[in-house]
Specification:
261 residues; mainly alpha
């Protein structure tokens, strides 16, 4: 693979994983628009590992506090970690049940573009109705984890967006925008790790090369920048900018797709 393609794919993964614009949709549409073939499972693994490292590096202090609290029998830390694990379960179940569709039917260009548009209205509705919550101290519990996980599992459809769905679910449950985004980042860790492990199992033996390293570094760097940007933005603004972007991109891709029929 060309190094520049690896860089841009890593950038799209890093930005799309944490902003509510869908990394899977952008990776699929980039391949469609520039005419490159699927980059392979091992490249996907490197992109996922890049974003996983981004979350760990950005939140390493919080993670350390949670781990220490867990082993020192701090109930709040234990409940938070348990809730994150519970939030992962629906995504794993839906992922296993719909695996074949996710790799075939759901990757059709017109469906990806349509999903970007459809779920934009969903995100906009939730954000407008519930985004003004200010319960920043609301504690994340296992019930909220389960329902946020249900929302997150919708993201098996490219275009829905894992962060978009999980943030929307948390807004619906009464969390502030900023707090919802932070919890969404923690929810991403087991999902990204699980996806990487699953892909490694199916990737076979592959050696590292420059494009793989570039893809990893690109997704890592842009992942950190995306986390910082979203948390800063949601302190004072809504998800409106992402909704507008998703709508425009989805409509442009659909127009191009119809024109080519």
């Amino acid at each position: 693979m060309d190094v520049w393609h690896a860089f841009f794919l890593g950038m799209l993964q890093g930005i799309g994983e944490f902003l509510p614009i869908s990394s899977s949709a952008h990776l699929r549409l980039y391949s469609y628009l520039v005419g490159i073939e699927y980059q392979g499972l091992f490249f996907d693994v490197m992109l996922h590992l890049g974003t996983l490292f981004a979350v760990f590096i950005y939140f390493w202090k919080d993670i350390l506090v949670l781990i220490k609290g867990f082993f020192s029998e701090d109930n709040e830390s234990r409940e938070f970690i348990l809730s994150i694990i519970i939030a992962t379960v629906p995504g794993v179940i839906f992922g296993l049940l719909l695996e074949d569709y996710a790799e075939s039917v759901f990757r059709q260009v017109w469906l990806v573009a349509f999903s970007l548009i459809f779920f934009s209205f969903f995100i906009m509705f939730i954000d407008m109705k519930y985004g003004r919550n200010y319960c920043c101290e609301k504690k994340f519990n296992w019930r909220d984890g389960f329902w946020a996980g249900i929302f997150q599992s919708i993201a098996i459809i490219p275009g829905a967006s894992r962060s978009g769905m999980s943030i929307s679910g948390l807004l619906f449950l009464g969390y502030s925008r900023e707090n919802a985004a932070k919890i969404s980042f923690f929810m991403s860790m087991p999902i990204i790790f699980g996806a990487a492990v699953f892909e490694i199992k199916n990737a076979g033996g592959v050696s590292l090369d420059i494009p793989l390293v570039v893809g990893f570094l690109s997704s890592f760097i842009f992942g950190i920048l995306s986390i910082k940007f979203l948390l800063s933005l949601l302190k004072k603004s809504s998800l409106k900018i992402f909704v507008i972007y998703r709508l425009l991109l989805g409509m442009l891709v659909l127009i191009k797709w119809f024109y080519e029929r």
